[in-house]
Amino acid sequence: MDDFLIYLRLGFDHITDPSGYDHILFVVALCAVYTLQQWRQVLILVTAFTIGHSITLAMATLRLIQYKTEVIELLIPITILITAFANFFFQETKSKSASSNQRSRNRLRYGLAMAFGLIHGMGFSNYLRSLLGREAEIVKPLLAFNIGLEIGQLLIVSLMLLLAFVVLDILNKSRLRWVLIVSGIVAGMALSLVINNEYLKEVMQ
């Protein structure tokens, strides 16, 4: 049980670590267009991301799939940049006639979250495999690590929605401005990660 808790803590620390903030940025970009009242939609969105990264985390850790680590490290900030850029087209739904369009946009976001989760899962597996080393039993550490990731992910989502509640409901600020500012900051940081990626620099030479 002690080992289970150790890997659970490692998973939590990995996704919430400010020094490795790429996964934090992605979760923030995912949640930027939602309010606290839309927590159900956020839950579906986060679940889609969880399904995606759980699949590749397990497959990569069990060595059922092979990939270039440096390519994944480049693709992760690209997924953040795409998600943040998509937020710039946010339109607040104010009429029932727009609800069908909103549902279509939500389905697209769910699909992207799951697809991008597949990429992030491979990134998570790089760290987990470095921790496991030659350890024979990997199923239990894998499960514990993934649960730790989910707890950390839910913490980030909760803080993001609470911050949105303060800004939008208590301070009564513009929702569109909030989305654009948050997404702009995330996009800028993600673009910096892409530009400074060593693999990209090598490819561009």
Give a short overview.
With 205 residues, this protein is mainly alpha-helical.
Task: Explain how this protein is built.
Helices cover 79% and strands 0% of the residues. It has 205 residues and is an all-alpha fold. The protein has one domain. It is globular and about 55 Å long. The mean pLDDT is 91.
* Outline: globular
Q: What's the number of domains?
A: 1
Note the total helix count: 8
The portion of residues forming beta strands comes to under 5%
Say what oligomer this is.
single chain
Key descriptive features of the protein:
Put_HupE_UreJ; membrane; mainly alpha; transmembrane helix; 205 residues; HupE/UreJ family protein; 79% helix; single chain; transmembrane
Give the topology.
Blueprint: H1 2-16, H2 22-31, H3 39-61, H4 69-87, H5 99-132, H6 139-170, H7 175-195, H8 198-204
